[in-house]
Amino acid sequence: MASARKVGIIGLGHVGAHVANSLLLQGLADELYLCDVKAQKVLSEAQDLHDSLTFVPFNTKIVNVGDRYEELASCDIIVNAAGNVAMAAGNRDGELFCTTDSARSFANRVVDAGFDGIWVSIANPCDVVCTTIWHLTNYDPKKIIGSGCGLDSARLHSEISKKCGISPKSIDAYMIGEHGFSQIAAWKAATIAGKPLSELACEYPEQYGFDQAEVEELARKGGYVTYEGKGCTEYAVANSAVRVCAAVLHNEHAVLSASTLMCGQYGEEGIFTSLPCVIGAEGIEQVYTLDLSDAELEGFHKSCQHIRDNIAQLAWW
Ligand SMILES: NC(=O)c1ccc[n+]([C@@H]2O[C@H](COP(=O)([O-])OP(=O)(O)OC[C@H]3O[C@@H](n4cnc5c(N)ncnc54)[C@H](O)[C@@H]3O)[C@@H](O)[C@H]2O)c1
Q1: Is S-adenosyl-L-methionine there in the keyword field (predicted)?
Q2: Bridge-based pairing state of the strands 269-280 and 254-263
Q3: For a tag site, which of 101, 123, 220, 233 has the least CB within 10 Å?
Q4: Taking the alpha carbons of 239, 88, 279, 28 in that order, is the dihedral positive or negative?
Q5: How much distance in Å is there from the Cα of 242 to the middle of ligand 1?
Q6: Ligand 1, from 96, 101, 122: best to mutate by most atoms within 8 Å of Cβ?
Q7: Which domain holds residue 273?
Q8: Residues 139, 214 within the same domain
Q9: 153 within ligand 1 shell (Cβ under 6 A)
Q10: What's the CA-to-centroid distance between 239 and ligand 1, angstroms?
Q11: pLDDT in tens, the chain (317 residues)
Q12: What CATH number does residue 18 fall under?
C-alpha cells in the first residue's frame, strides 16, 4: 500500500478552511492536520469537515493539532494560511507584521521537529512571508512555494476570457512579480494556441483588440472586488493553492505561476517572487523567464523592489 498523503494546514480562517474542503472534495489527502491558535475554531472546522466524509470521494483522517506545530512534522505538505485578513483591507501590506510574526512563531518549530516536506505559503504579503520562512529556517528554497501570482494569473485568464470568449483554461498568460498591487502582466509572452495575443489582435481585432492595460488592472484589482462584498477572498485562492498541492502530490511537473526564490532571473536574487515554475514532488524544479518588453521588465524590477522595501521594515530581520 502506498504511504498516506499527509497535508497540514496552519490557519483555519476563510482560506485555510476552503483549502481543507477543496482537498477533501478532490480526494487529494489521506490525512489532514488542522492547526490554528483559536482552539474552538479549529475544533469546529475539524467537526464540519468530518461531517462531510459521507459525501467526498475517499475517507480522510482529520486531525486537530491545535497549536502543536510539531505535530505537522510528518506532513508531505504544510499550507500556511495564518494571518488576519481584516488587516489586508485595502492593501495586502497591512498584514506585513502580523503574518511575518506568525511565521516566526511556527516555522522553526516545524522544521526543528523534522519537517522535510513542501511549504505552500498563502499568507500575505505572500512573497515577504515566503522569504521570511526561508530566511528563518534556511530551508531548501525549492521546497518553499508561494501561491503568489497563481491566483492573479487565473484572474488574468478570467478577464481575457470575458473579452474574447475563449475558455480561461486555453489562455497561456502570466501575472508576474509581487502578489500585490505592483504585479505586472507579461503581455509580450501571452499566447493562445501558441499564437501571441498581439498577432491574434491583428487577425481578429474585434475579438482580441481589447485594452490590455484595462484588463491587466482588472486582474490586479480583482481580489478587492471579491473582498468588497465578502471581507475576504476564499474559493479561487484555495483552488489555486490546492492546484499546487496536486502538482506536488502527483509529481506532475506542472507549469504554474508561483512565488519562488530569485536566483539571478532578470538579475534579481535573494527574494521570493512569482514567475512560471515547474512544480513536482520535490517542489520547484525549474523557474522560467519570459520574453518581456522593456516596460514589463521595468515593472518587474519595481515589483521586486517593493518586496525588498517591505522586508526592510522588519526590524528583527
Ligand atoms: N496569496 C493569496 O493569493 C491570498 C489570497 C487570499 C488571502 N490570502 C491571505 O491568506 C491569509 C489567510 O486569509 P483568511 O481570509 O483565511 O484570514 P482569516 O483572518 O479569516 O484567518 C486567518 C486564520 O489564521 C489563524 N492564525 C493566525 N496566526 C496563527 C498562527 N501563528 N498559528 C496558527 N494559526 C494562526 C487565525 O486564528 C485565523 O483563524 C491572509 O494572510 C490573507 O491575506 C492570500
Answers
A1: no
A2: antiparallel
A3: 101
A4: negative
A5: 15
A6: 122
A7: 150-312
A8: no
A9: no
A10: 15
A11: 568 999 999 999 999 999 999 999 999 999 999 999 999 999 999 999 999 999 999 999 999 999 999 999 999 999 999 999 999 888 899 999 999 999 999 999 999 999 999 999 999 999 999 999 999 999 999 999 999 999 999 999 999 999 999 999 999 999 999 999 999 999 999 999 999 999 999 999 999 999 999 999 999 998 888 888 988 889 999 999 999 999 999 999 999 999 999 999 999 999 999 999 999 999 999 999 999 999 999 999 999 999 999 999 999 99
A12: 3.40.50.720
Identity of the amino acid at 288 = Y
What's the CA gap between 120 and 142, in Å, rounded?
11
Ligand 1 near 10 CB (within 6 A): yes
Residues 215, 68, single domain; the answer is no
Residue 317 lies inside a defined structural domain of this protein: no
1 found inside a domain: no
What is the signed CA dihedral for 156, 161, 163, 164, rounded to 10 degrees? 130
Q: Find out whether the beta carbon of 85 lies less than 6 Å from any atom of ligand 1.
A: yes
DSSP state of 264: S
Which among 41, 9, 25, 36 has a CA at the least distance from the CA of 147? 9
**How far is ligand 1, taken at its centre, from the CA of residue 13, in Å?**
6
Residue 14 Cβ inside 6 Å of ligand 1? The answer reads yes
- Measured from the CB, is residue 284 less than 6 Å from ligand 1? no
Q: Which residues are annotated as a binding site for NAD(+)?
A: 11-16, 36, 122-124
Atom of ligand 1 nearest to the CA of 98: 28
Q: Of 78, 111, 146, which residue is a domain's last?
A: 146
Single pTM value for the model? 0.97
